[in-house]
């Protein structure tokens, strides 16, 4: 075999930009919600592997099912389109990300300053939403937002997750309790048919499991895949259900 046959094909401009974008995403993980991360995951798999052809997870691995669906839903989308959409997704978050990355490559000192300033800009209190405060576990701000707009308590986000789902995902007992007392539906479902009890069970938040059960969370509600909280629970938590 000729040596040239062993050499990889040179990367296209699109592939090089996509690779930079995928590395840049790692700096944003803590700032993105689960829906955004799943969307990027699906596009990344589509771009690097191609259409999803693996079996659907059918047991307690909730996150694995979500990832599979994010990938599978892209159907026969081409690798080029997936890469383009991935890059566009990064641009929506930070239109100048590529220029910033190029500048960082030339100045380590600038990297540190840029990261701090960018992070602080993202975390300005006036820019945070009701759900942002829930994700951070700031009960005082959650109370402040709800006192001004009580209907937020059962308002889902773009991915179909209700405030109670986010509090359950984080295991914030005080916020869960306040949301319930403010009118949150303890058995509300997200787009996958999962309740807050599904979330605390899958995240092993034992105290939150006990609390939700004590205020009427139904342990027999099945999600869109037919899985109840007990079926995805570990042995310790399953004994409580």
From TrEMBL:
Keyword terms: ANK repeat, Lipid-binding, Repeat
SUPFAM superfamilies linked: Acyl-CoA binding protein, Ankyrin repeat
Phosphoprotein as UniProt keyword: no
A Pfam short name: ACBP
Gene Ontology molecular function terms on file: fatty-acyl-CoA binding
InterPro entries: Acyl-CoA-binding_protein (IPR000582), Acyl-CoA-binding_sf (IPR035984), Ankyrin_rpt (IPR002110), Ankyrin_rpt-contain_sf (IPR036770), FERM/acyl-CoA-bd_prot_sf (IPR014352)
ANK repeats: 159-191, 192-224
Protein name: Acyl-CoA-binding domain-containing protein 6
Annotated source species: Trachymyrmex cornetzi
């Amino acid at each position: 075999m000729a040596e040239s046959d062993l050499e990889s094909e040179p990367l296209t401009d699109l592939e090089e930009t996509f690779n930079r974008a995928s590395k840049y995403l790692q700096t944003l993980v803590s700032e993105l919600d689960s829906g955004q991360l799943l969307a990027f995951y699906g596009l990344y798999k589509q771009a690097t592997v191609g259409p999803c052809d693996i079996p659907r997870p059918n047991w307690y691995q909730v996150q694995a099912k979500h990832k599979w669906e994010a990938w599978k839903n892209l159907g026969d989308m081409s690798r080029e389109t997936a890469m383009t959409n991935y890059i566009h997704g990064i641009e929506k978050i930070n239109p100048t990300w590529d220029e910033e990355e190029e500048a960082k490559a030339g100045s380590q000192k600038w990297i540190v300053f840029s990261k701090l300033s960018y992070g602080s800009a993202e975390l300005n209190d006036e820019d945070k939403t009701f759900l942002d405060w829930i994700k951070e576990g700031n009960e005082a701000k959650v109370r402040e937002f709800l006192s001004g707009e009580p209907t937020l308590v059962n308002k889902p986000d773009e991915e179909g997750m209700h405030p109670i789902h986010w509090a359950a995902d984080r295991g914030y007992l005080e916020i869960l309790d306040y949301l319930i007392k403010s009118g949150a539906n303890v058995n509300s479902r997200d787009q996958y048919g999962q309740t807050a009890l599904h979330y605390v069970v899958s995240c092993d938040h034992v105290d939150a499991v006990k609390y939700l059960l004590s205020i009427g969370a139904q342990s027999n509600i099945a999600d869109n895949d037919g899985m109840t909280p007990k079926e995805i629970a570990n042995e310790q938590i399953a004994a409580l259900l």
